[in-house]
Input
Amino acid sequence: MRYSDTFKLAGHTVRRMGYGAMQLAGPNVFGPPKDRGEAIAVLREAVALGVNHIDTADIYGPHVTNEIIREALHPYSDDLVIVTKVGARRGDDGAWIPAFSREDLTRSVHDNLRNLGLDVLEVVNLRSMFDTHGPKEGSLDEPLSVLADLERQGLIRHIGLSNVTPKQVADGRRICEIVCVQNLYNLVHRPDDALIDALAGDGIAYVPFFPLGGFTPLQSSALSDVARRLGATPMQVALAWLYRRAPNILLIPGTSSRTHLRENLAASALTLSDDVMAKLNAISEGSS
Ligand SMILES: NC(=O)c1ccc[n+]([C@@H]2O[C@H](COP(=O)([O-])OP(=O)(O)OC[C@H]3O[C@@H](n4cnc5c(N)ncnc54)[C@H](OP(=O)(O)O)[C@@H]3O)[C@@H](O)[C@H]2O)c1
Output
């Protein structure tokens, strides 16, 4: 079955193939990129090719990625949904440091507003930092209540969660409306299978980060084999698998190159048969 190419996110109809802007900062997401002109060109081409969902954070750089988005795309078209995140700050050495106090979160929202050139942020994800590398239980009630206050003040329109457990999602939904969940998930890393299906039932977007494996690109002989037979690249097949996995999955592959951007966006047109899906599903079964 082929799902719709669009999904409702925070009241907007967005194309499910979006773009993640983290790769536009320098190495290790710290400092400026090698080629700022290419970064701007990537963003403009993404939007020209129909992307209307961009994921970012002011801590990318820090500030660099948002400044580049502003330079490339401001004033933004009405249908563009920019999703950002708060909950961490960067150390002088580039470390990712939890930043969950009311003061931290408020400052972070203002940093995003200023550097993106916006009066209100459409969607802000609270990025859980109990464990930087993966979801870990712990109460998010206080920081979520701060974001709900900022929403009431008109600085934020919608709230999402990132790096969270199913319990944190359920608890969060008792505090405010949660419009999206952004966790690490891809062809070989699938702890959220049940969560994705539950969110789909409730019309909530699931936005996998590291859809291509992130800093360690996905590698699998089965994936390469399928790609060869389809005349596609392994990265395209990995994205097409996510596209077919569930209707509420919004893709935000990151790239700093227009060549890769075009390749990634074209993956939404790739049709995967049930046989191919079964072969790809077996990759994760084999890896666990
Ligand atoms: N919430 C969170 O905690 C969190 C964490 C990480 C990321 N994110 C978000 O998720 C987005 C996606 O994650 P990501 O960018 O880290 O990882 P990703 O999309 O899994 O992979 C990006 C890497 O793949 C390469 N790549 C992209 N397209 C390619 C292609 N067609 N062929 C070969 N290589 C390709 C990129 O290099 P090139 O630049 O050379 O193309 C880059 O090294 C980020 O941009 C960010 O917005 C969120």
Notes: The chain has one domain: 6-285. The mean pLDDT is 97. The domain at 6-285 is CATH 3.20.20.100 (TIM Barrel). The first strand starts at residue 6 and ends at 9.
